Amino acid sequence: MAKGHTLYARVVLDSPLPQLDHPFDYRVPDALVEQIAVGQKVVVPLRAGNRRCDAWVIELLDEIDFSGRVADVDSIVTTVPVLPVELYGLARTIADRQAGSAVDVLRLAIPPRYVRAEKAFLSAVTHDAVTKVAPANSSREFHLFSGGVEELPTGRSVPRWTTSYAAAAAQQMQADRSTIIVLPDFRDIALVVEALDALGQTEHVVRLDAGLTGAARWTNYLRVLSGERVIVIGNRSSVYAPVASLGLIMLWDDANDAMREPLAPYAHPRDVALVRQEQAQCDLVIGGFVPGPASARLISLGYLQLRELGPKRRPLIATDAQTENQPSTTRIPSIVFTAGKQAIADGPVLVQVAKPGYSTGVRCTSCGTRANCNHCGGPLRLARQGANPSCRWCGRLEPNYVCRSCKSTSVASVGAGSEKTADELGRAFAGARVVVADGAHQIERVAGANTLVIATPGTEPIADGGYAAVFVLDGEIARAREDMDTDQQALNAWVSAAALARDDAPVYLSGTGPVLGKVLALREFVAFVTSLVREREQLGLPPATRAAVVTGSAQAIAAVRTEIRALPIRSILGPVPSGPEEQRLIITCDYKHALELATTLRALIVKTAQAPRPSARTQGQRISRLNVRMDDTWLSSSTTGGAS
DNA sequence: AGCACGCCGACT
DNA sequence: GTCGGCGTGCTC
Questions:
Q1: Which nucleotides of B are covered by protein (CB under 7 A)?
Q2: Is the CB of A29 under 7 A from strand C?
Q3: pLDDT tens-digit profile of A322-356?
Q4: From the alpha carbon of A618, which nucleotide's C1' atom is closest?
């Protein structure tokens, strides 16, 4: 900047207060003019100069139109521009969309700073001049995978979709563009990293997941900022990674519970990716075996182009499709013994069961009353055969259980978990090695014939070469969840297990019921989930609409109801009590009006935050509070506190 | 949040 | 008369 001019810095304050979530202008003192840059973290005075606040520089200006007294920037915290303008733009858009603060988004996007790691990084790295690259095609696709595994040159197998993702990232790298890969869990990250290694991409892979140490995460964040072309891989917040020359964002299994952001402003990485795709004009891929409702909606709107990938595979056979109303007395269908015994000579066999442990419940033998924990009321079960009953919720042992209603002390187990299934099948499959994989025993990988794997959904080991057969038991348990997305979630859990089979291996499922049985047999997943979304359309529910879940004190909720009266909303559910002196209201509206609703709710949040606080005199009264969640997963059991 | 401003009751 | 309680409002 030329001398003689006054330079101003527009900043966004690092404060959680909603009323401060807008730009503030400060004068840049002469001493800082040479060093200050957009994206840096600085310290600024706030009110009278005694208070200080961290802030990010989002713009440098020669003049401002603020009429009040302008204070000076105090100091520069870090010279590294940790908040590039594009990232602030994205954070602002997401915050506005979610009725939240940009700062809350930035807290997810920018990892905590580690000064020592930063010094080490800066002294080691030579900065290349960053050259801009022509944007990608701006395509948006849903990749529907048929399943299957692929053998890497290392001899280890990985799911076929991971090699597809790795190849797409490698192709971007070839074109001098960066890729961001967002995955639900650490297992997926490890598998895709393995697939990337096999393609010789190791040196370009930058992990940003929470599994790293804080220092490593900050170092990797700095590397992303450096301008180098990279393949970022991580969990949901990686979707914000400020890579240079973004060519492609890929998400896997966006309907997975782990993809839901529990932190304010609760922006789903899929929605962030959709916004970012438009802002960066990059390519976007969402992939899965069964599309989630949100993706199915976008496919049916033509916003996401559907691509079916992978070879034709053996049909998925529902063994009980015709016997829905006559539940079999034997949980394990005979096909498991016949087809299973035949297959196991040829390779590992996978049996997916719904629950871990030995029994899923305990019942009094004389009166049949279901046994519950004396401490928390949770259901008792047997962790292993002959074990004392223990609580599924709090884990407490209940060695001397006495029935509430008949005082009997004799109990019997009901329902079979992975351990009991392993016992039963182990006896039938004499000579087979029986492996139990569930939350408590994580097993990454199995190989070889005569291996029988019993696993719960999401914990199935990869079999080198693929499983020779896959059986899904307990379908009715997966379908029993009291959840809007139950059918989609159940299909996804089953097909994810089936996907680990060899292409020509048989897959049998029991307890699916006739409707899902047919969907599985015909592999009509897109059509089926689309039909679920159409039903929601009739009901005016997400993802056909957008919803805001508003919780707060009675007076705050009353203010919301008054304020939204004039808005073009679809429906208002509630208010219902949702806690001590707290009410909940659910507002739905069409997508095109959601921003208007968010803006209105945001204004009320600011107003509520500035409302009178409790004082000595009004001590008895509750503080006025207001919380807004604008995501589309609020009907799921995990958000309403179901236990499993 | 935190701090200043400002408007009514007990005080030297 | 004014000292200081605490609601109210604002933060470049």
A1: 1-4
A2: no
A3: 454 444 456 777 787 787 788 889 999 998 988 77
A4: C7
Q: What is the structure's pLDDT at A643?
A: 30
Distance CA A454, CA A552 (A): 45
pLDDT in tens, A543-581: 999 999 999 988 889 889 999 998 999 999 888 888 878
Residue A588 CA: distances (Å) to CA of A83, A292, A501, A539, A606 = 34, 20, 42, 10, 21
In whole angstroms, B10 C1' to A611 CA is 30
Domains and CATH numbers, chain A: 7-81 (3.40.1440), 118-309 (3.40.50.300), 317-533 (no CATH), 545-630 (3.30.70.260)
- Amino acid in position A280: A
Cβ of A616 less than 7 A from strand B: no
Q: Is the CB of A44 under 7 A from strand C?
A: yes
Nearest to A142 by CA among A315, A296, A279: A296
Give distance CA A46 / C1' C4 (Å): 26
Task: Return the axis-axis angle of helices A486-498 and A513-522, rounded to nearest 10°.
Answer: 50
Q: What is the pTM of this model?
A: 0.91
Q: Over the stretch A478-495, which tens digit does the pLDDT of each residue have? A: 888 777 889 999 999 999
| Å from the A50 CA to the B12 C1' | 34
